[in-house]
Amino acid sequence: xxxxxxxxxxxxxxxxxxxxxxxxxxxxxxxxxxxxxxxxxxxxxxxxxxxxxxxxxxxxxxxxxxxxxxxxxxxxxxxxxxxxxxxxxxxxxxxxxxxxxxxxxxxxxxxxxxxxxxxxxxxxxxxxxxxxxxxxxxxxxxxxxxxxxxxxxxxxxxxxxxxxxxxxxxxxxxxxxxxxxxxxxxxxxxxxxxxxxxxxxxxxxxxxxxxxxxxxxxxxxxxxxxxxxxxxxxxxxxxxxxxxxxxxxxxxxxxxxxxxxxxxxxxxxxxxxxxxxxxxxxxxxxxxxxxxxxxxxxxxxxxxxxxxxxxxxxxxxxxxxxxxxxxxxxx
Length: 331
Ligand SMILES: NC(=O)c1ccc[n+]([C@@H]2O[C@H](COP(=O)([O-])OP(=O)(O)OC[C@H]3O[C@@H](n4cnc5c(N)ncnc54)[C@H](O)[C@@H]3O)[C@@H](O)[C@H]2O)c1
Fold this sequence. Notes:
By secondary structure, the protein is an alpha/beta fold.
């Protein structure tokens, strides 16, 4: 299936590049996105010297090896500091392309064009870029804000595999839990998780929340850490499943992590039982939730202690007090 380019989104990008005197543009896409949408960014070629690089799809491409291949190709083609990288894809491409752009010639301009729900609401924003080393996710990277994120074109969601849609939905639930009870209530009344049910205004809200937190703490030292809600257990589950050779998408692991972290907060008396139960009901409606008995908990333990939020020997969890309890003006 091929999608016609969305003229508003592309025109926005062309105007942006044009107004900043860009003349050389390198599009980085993964093989799936390039095969599905070979002409989406074609209009760029009419205005700029445009070259497309394609990398294999999937997390396995988020490596230093892959970054080096791209650096070498940029160098072979004699791109200078004024080249603009356009990352066309999901979070993997935004992270990899953002990292290459942040480091090539000590930093060139970079634009994200997100094509997954997870990238539209989260990964394309905030400037965290990087690659994995062995099985350690995001082990090497830098924080460097993209020069532009092209606003979400929800038509991309029509071709997204259902597990990837769920993965983005997991992060969407997280933003609602953190920042907006209204959004949470709307998600509760969503009849089924399909691309058509994802409302553009939900995406815009998440982007607003993320950008608000990032503006307070771009370097991820204080306020931004709240975005890790669900990630302490979520990352442990993700690593444990990967080690068993049964990887789960990031946002799916986060959804499961949120359920268990909310239960924990309710047990500690930090969150009302009613709120933890609402989170549990919403997560269970859309995700297969594994039962974590004592044996599983023991197996997760080593992964919990690897979490980058930990201080000294203590596993650190994000503490929240109720659904939507962090105060940001609603958009
Ligand atoms: N930088 C950040 O702030 C941040 C935040 C969250 C996650 N991440 C990173 O993002 C990555 C996960 O991102 P993701 O979930 O978008 O995964 P992804 O980029 O690997 O994409 C998932 C799959 O969907 C395919 N795909 C992409 N768009 C499509 C479309 N429109 N139609 C059909 N298929 C499509 C891809 O080819 C891939 O196979 C991880 O590496 C994670 O560490 C980064």
